Batch of 2 targets.
Target 1
Amino acid sequence: MTDNHLMWENLGMDVKTHDILCEVLPQAFGDVYLTQENRPNGMDYFNMVVGDIHGLRPAELIKLQEEEGKKVVGTFCIHVPDEVVFAAGGIATGLCSGSQFWVPGGEKVLPTATCPLIKASLGAHFDKTCPFFRICDLFVGETTCDGKKKAWEILSEDAEMYIMDIPQMKRPQDFKKWEEEIRNYITKIEEITGNKVTEESLKEAIVISNNKRKALQRLNNFRKLDNIPISGRDVLLIHQIAFYDDPTRFTEMVNKLCDELDKRKEEEVSVFEKGTKRILLTGTPLSIPNWKLHQIIENSGGAVICEEMCTGIRYCEALVDESGENIDEMVENLAERYLGHINCACFTPNKARIDDIIRLAKEYKADGVIDVNLKFCNIYDTEGYFVEKAMAEAGIPCIGIETDYTDEDAEQLKTRIGAFIEMLS
Amino acid sequence: MTDNHLMWENLGMDVKTHDILCEVLPQAFGDVYLTQENRPNGMDYFNMVVGDIHGLRPAELIKLQEEEGKKVVGTFCIHVPDEVVFAAGGIATGLCSGSQFWVPGGEKVLPTATCPLIKASLGAHFDKTCPFFRICDLFVGETTCDGKKKAWEILSEDAEMYIMDIPQMKRPQDFKKWEEEIRNYITKIEEITGNKVTEESLKEAIVISNNKRKALQRLNNFRKLDNIPISGRDVLLIHQIAFYDDPTRFTEMVNKLCDELDKRKEEEVSVFEKGTKRILLTGTPLSIPNWKLHQIIENSGGAVICEEMCTGIRYCEALVDESGENIDEMVENLAERYLGHINCACFTPNKARIDDIIRLAKEYKADGVIDVNLKFCNIYDTEGYFVEKAMAEAGIPCIGIETDYTDEDAEQLKTRIGAFIEMLS
């Protein structure tokens, strides 16, 4: 028995079923990632992390739990501030699941007409086939969308959950309300970890998180170049890993990669052929290991140069103001960033997202926009009405794509996306 | 040209398309309603109101607008307190639409995977085929579910809208927040109507609305009898009319009908044959003219004896505390009733609804429960997990039904519902 298998058994996982996933993941990763030419060497770290995704980091988390008494807090949404967990000496890890492998398990308890991300997350939990779900001391849910809001009730039958009620609008009173939610979240995390959140620890956590964002921003900036030194799928992978890796080590590794990309920039190295069309993706998140669209686009004459998504710009672009001097000010700054600067379709109205897409399309010199919707995500699907209208007005070619985690629509997507990219020529 | 046609033209309606609806509605109403035997005479009023649904009340509303300068406020949810509108001398009218006729119009702007109620409402507006949408001076939306929350953004492109942000939870701070929303709503309605909401007018509005609820409650109580003196479909129709009729006249008419039912009670008159199975419906609302399920159930050996729905008990069961002495106390009482005592699946958690269903099943002596879901309503669909579980634990036979506004599934529903009712024997 490998060390991983022993760990998974100790975690009470369904090891036999999980083995099926362990068999298919390397093949999928190889197909999407290792077929690429001229990848930066700095990708080695991220290859390693994802290569043993259910081994390396879980083992590390368990060690920190056992040896240092640390608590692991699992989250499902970029509106939930990691800083609070860090400031209380805890570990935050994202739990959104991106594989069809987990979907049937979710469908045992959820309606079929639920988005695959939510179904996969609950499936990963109830089928006991994801170590991260087994390790967490607390799950933190939110009321961002109907599917998640109601799914947490089912998840909470089998795990300790804490729910943050995110305002559905962004009026001045909603910021006050979100501050109150963050304050209550601090109290809950202090309880769970047994540690106080102090001015010092919260300030430090804000800086750590900002540094991670800055590194990701630095990485994204290379995609604005005419000669793009890194593929879209590689950047996506890094964004996905950002959700569960140690933030300080992750930042260091991203910056190391960026040093290498600086050299590529000087040497005008591009991983794409001349004439490759620059595609901006907007819409629902692409959780690990959901690499389907990037693979199709980048195998069809396109380069993904920006993701206006939770697994992309929405996660890293805005910083928390670091000038807060006391807890109240810091909470206010957190609320400002986590409510004000994430333009999720869960808000009404959400015009700022449309402005973001147009701005990003310019900054990243997009030739076209693909509006991606995970099947049954009603909020992004409805907002697509405004995205398509605004793109038409701005003269930016745009198509809407609806997909899920299966491969059933791969051929259809290849045809549609291929035709769209061809049309851009 | 009839008076109605002249009015519809003046309202800028698409009269030609609307005529198609005018042709099919009487037939549908006749099939469902006029085939019943031994209906109470008190139904005559409601027959008349629905018989000229796009004529009588719209003409009355226009007259009140023109002659008394009254404002008409259209709403889509029972969480929005009518009392505020009444207290400012305005008229409140429900706008939720229940016909497949309007769905294709809604699908022009909304995802197909949106619930038919929302699609029909937007279709009725954009196709200009419902006079109520044309008459309203203001639409009031809310953030109860994803579908509605995002649909209002599209509707607001073509009409003045005001949005109330309903809390997604029911903690003490959420009641405070809902009070604030109600206070802001008062300000908005004062602006629109030009009238102040006073202690006197708000108190009077609370009493008027409570009287309506008491009348409906009195009506529903007859359905607890062994000999049920009125059909489920008739009670449903009355609940549907409650949303748009003049509240004082409506209350009078319901009470008049109840006087007649009192006599039937004494005489032990039942409109159902002995052995008819008593069915409680729970789930999503049945907006006018959605009578499909009641017709199927009551033609298959069942009697609908209670609707744990927005078009049912959720609308009328809880009263607003009338003891408030000033605006603040009255707003607090409104918040308590409109947040605390409506157990919509939009809340998390929503255990109180499960308790309601079990309590109502006992009070109304239900033989079985049908959990009804409008297709693509994720919140009620997900909550169905808890409904079915709780019914199994309580030993109450239960089936889940998913349907929309089309008649395509009528045969399938007849078979399933027929088998369910047979199984209860």
Target 2
Amino acid sequence: GGLTHYRADGAAHMVDVSAKDVTAREATATAVLRTRPDVVARIATGDLPKGEAVAVARVAGILAAKRTHELVPLCHPLPISGVDVDVVPSGDHVALSATVRTTSRTGVEMEALTAVTVAGLTVYDMIKAVDRAAVLTDVQVVAKSGGTTGTWVREEQA
Amino acid sequence: GGLTHYRADGAAHMVDVSAKDVTAREATATAVLRTRPDVVARIATGDLPKGEAVAVARVAGILAAKRTHELVPLCHPLPISGVDVDVVPSGDHVALSATVRTTSRTGVEMEALTAVTVAGLTVYDMIKAVDRAAVLTDVQVVAKSGGTTGTWVREEQA
Amino acid sequence: GGLTHYRADGAAHMVDVSAKDVTAREATATAVLRTRPDVVARIATGDLPKGEAVAVARVAGILAAKRTHELVPLCHPLPISGVDVDVVPSGDHVALSATVRTTSRTGVEMEALTAVTVAGLTVYDMIKAVDRAAVLTDVQVVAKSGGTTGTWVREEQA
Amino acid sequence: GGLTHYRADGAAHMVDVSAKDVTAREATATAVLRTRPDVVARIATGDLPKGEAVAVARVAGILAAKRTHELVPLCHPLPISGVDVDVVPSGDHVALSATVRTTSRTGVEMEALTAVTVAGLTVYDMIKAVDRAAVLTDVQVVAKSGGTTGTWVREEQA
Amino acid sequence: GGLTHYRADGAAHMVDVSAKDVTAREATATAVLRTRPDVVARIATGDLPKGEAVAVARVAGILAAKRTHELVPLCHPLPISGVDVDVVPSGDHVALSATVRTTSRTGVEMEALTAVTVAGLTVYDMIKAVDRAAVLTDVQVVAKSGGTTGTWVREEQA
Amino acid sequence: GGLTHYRADGAAHMVDVSAKDVTAREATATAVLRTRPDVVARIATGDLPKGEAVAVARVAGILAAKRTHELVPLCHPLPISGVDVDVVPSGDHVALSATVRTTSRTGVEMEALTAVTVAGLTVYDMIKAVDRAAVLTDVQVVAKSGGTTGTWVREEQA
């Protein structure tokens, strides 16, 4: 396949999806915010109620999913029908996961990636005063289903 | 230091920065989009004019920097005075870098991270039809200056 | 019924509405901005053309209805198919009303409430220089139709 | 005083504040969402972790404060320097309060009202499946300080 | 036909399109940014890579099409299914063109006009340091198809 | 002068204005929407209250000025301190004018152009059902003052 976001003359465009079928589609993305155990401890059990920090990041991710087409220029606006975002402090990192669903002509991989990324940046924002060196990493699609290309699941990398 | 985004009762808030000095501040963030050499070749010299793909990602990053406070809930709106975003295809990856400047009461680390992240997601969006498994990784602040905490540069990790 | 915006584990999510029917739906909300007769007189017949003040509030309400899903985190983006906003100065108050329509999988109560609320705040903004003590009150859904739960009309409170 | 948002010819405009002093300003607004004790019990101690519901509404309010000038047409964009939002379930209602601070040429009453209103609508959105008849009421500025008109505190209404 | 954006009582509203058919619709708009040949030469072949300047304006136009309903108060939000924007430097001007497609209940003339206009303003922004007197002109719909009124093509003005 | 929005390597960037002075700045832009006398008559005195149509376009222009930096990628976010928009139906056209003021490091020409353009598109949206062939033309800066380059007034073109 080619890079469909570009025309034969090389110009970027929002590819016309009018002829594609309206089907149920779903995508899940994950990411990891790497920090230190003492920082994770603060989020999870320390001087900060876990519910509050996790909820703030979760809401940021859900809201960001809805704004994906404003941020990623060639994305189509989509009637998102559901979003789940998980923010799980554990050991020396915070694991992030987002699943987005739609019934539409295009997939929601970018929406899932945007949700998980903004949730991760929101956690970074909360902890940067105590660990500016934290790193958001492994931002990736782990599964998608629906549409012409059907179901895809990321192979494990050993 | 503690988690300043939370009050003594654990509630998230946008911390009051009224008493902080208005000073020149700058931050640089980087990230890497890992894909395959044949995909990078397409972006850089193949069926897609390099300038167009790079420019689309760059513009997405610049615009995203300006919307950071809409995406990251506890960030302050800032009068951003300059943004540079670099998108450099090379080997099996695309290197992303963003520098943001302001004259304000708070720093611009989040703005630099948001710029580099959205630029990276935009590149992913362009190539996902040929490499859905591409990964955005190593999203991190590499340097910041200005404000109370002054200059900080990330130590190299060998 | 339970609080559907939360999962079994208590996490907020945008509930998946993929399986709900696409049907015509409508909701009407009302509110009242309480101020003083002399202030209302200015809006309606005094030193300010009534059409201009009313139109500004009306436009603000219509635009706000379209942004409901950006403001209320767990709301779904919807293809709104019609919005009417009424702003009626009368006696010591300004009566606000908004009706929103869609053909979608979820209802538009939140859109109607957002429209009427922002219209009311816009009137307050116009008069706050002469009556800072004005109060926006009785913001409520008065009727909705369509969807699984069908038609509902608020009972009169005597 | 007159209605400053309108010119001598009756046209709405964003009044020129160039000549006003840049000073520290603060405003607090409150509102009440009236529902039923059993609904409040669910939010506070029942099938929903209190922290999550309260945090979602709080974040919605904080984000809304930053978008006030996009919603209320004649408001000036402001460098908001701090926002606190409180969401307190109690008896048969949820009490909402927001305090906003800036160092700017205009006040932040509208920002405080927008924060408290959107926080209240977010609570309504969470409970509407169990109490569609809930009402957001008593949306009002209770105190403001700074600027030409100085400090103002709402008189108690017995 | 009358001015459908207004009710019988003269109030602006977002007209209810619930009863209109969901059909494929397309619209094309054009505009011209008039400047000087030496300025056009800089964009096209001079000290600025043509691809970069053209791509920045193109992306701005594509993004703007998606935000039409936020800018033009009485426009309906639409599931845009494709956008092409062309930015062609030539002689003493830059020719702008945008085609937008949807499958929806209303047309996309406003989206095409918004795309071409914002692309033109973006070119102006780039050149204003060397030609503040440049003019954006002839912003017009040149063709639309689909919907109740079917196909329409602008007659040539000799 | 060169095209400051581009670096020596041709990359677009948001130019760093940190070193520029914070001064009072103002810009005025105008445009004309050309239609037919019978259409203008409807807006001004016919089946539509003049105040309502003019007010809707005016509000759209004021709101658009505040969003200029979201639309034009290389524009800086600015603390706009005042906006006036005039919409004057006359003969076979509607004359549009916008004046924007700020106290900032960069000028507000783009804000004035965005205001006048969106106001014009809003009028087109209102009349397109009766004159799809209407044209927005002569979008131009007519005066600016403040900043390094001082006052500039467009020469009359006879």
